[in-house]
Amino acid sequence: MSELTVRMGENIRIYRRANRMTLSELATKINKSKATVGKYEQGTIALDMDTLYEIAAALGVSPFQLMVSLLPEKKEKGEPRLQGERRYLYLYDGRASRILRSLLVSGQEDDAVTLFYDIPSFTEPQRCRALYYGRRQKHDFVTNYILENQSNGVEHAFLCVMRSLDRPTESTGLISGISSRMLLPVSAKCILSEAVLPENEELTESLLLTKEDIRLTRRCNMFIVEQISWLG
Question: CB neighbours of 109 closer than 8 A, spacing ≥ 6?
Fold first, then answer.
């Protein structure tokens, strides 16, 4: 079996579970048997292009997203890999007093993005608390993500991040949406990183609102956060 076939099988399983969809439900949507879909997920049989597009449509993703590595890369020399973009999103949930981690995945060939929101670890994105699909808009120093909750079409999320000049692999920004607990519009300070960050006291401090953040918010009557330039 090829590496791409195995990767696509892993991704089909991840997106299916994140969508709270059973193997039988996916099989019904694409008019295949449960056993056949199971073999797709195991990577034991290859997908033809028509089936790839059918599965992508059933899961609400682009075909290219099924080919992008969602799990951590294996460090094996000389092994070609189809590269997509994985970004690690962090914010601090003061209600639960914990860092909330999420995985943002986008392909190189289009601007479609997937957000696995609030996951136990980056190796288990299918166990996300909420799954979002949407689009990315890249500009010189700002990138916007417009996302829709797949289990609740009323709830959308907007993520706006600014690239730091002195730390180009990390971006500071705001994520806004509707709180599932309070059912009210909320915004939170966040960090989007190209690499996994240590979830320590320093990261927690960088995610908390500073006195300057609060001062700017009170003065302008707008929720404003300054760029984080000292992280790490």
Answer: 64
Q: Is 43 left (phi over 0), alpha (psi -120 to 50) or beta?
A: left
Residue type at 104 in one-letter notation: L
Domain layout of the chain by residue ranges: 3-66, 85-220
Q: Domain 3-66, what fold?
A: 434 Repressor (Amino-terminal Domain) (1.10.260)
List phi, psi (to 5°) of 206.
-70, -20
Strand 85-93 with 130-138, pairing: unpaired
Tens-digit pLDDT profile for residues 127-154: 999 999 999 998 888 899 999 998 887 8
pTM of the entire predicted model: 0.85
Query: Interior CA angle at 111 toward 4 and 32, to 5°?
Result: 45
Q: CATH: 2.60.40, 3.40.960, 3.40.50, 2.40.128. Which one for 85-220? A: 2.40.128
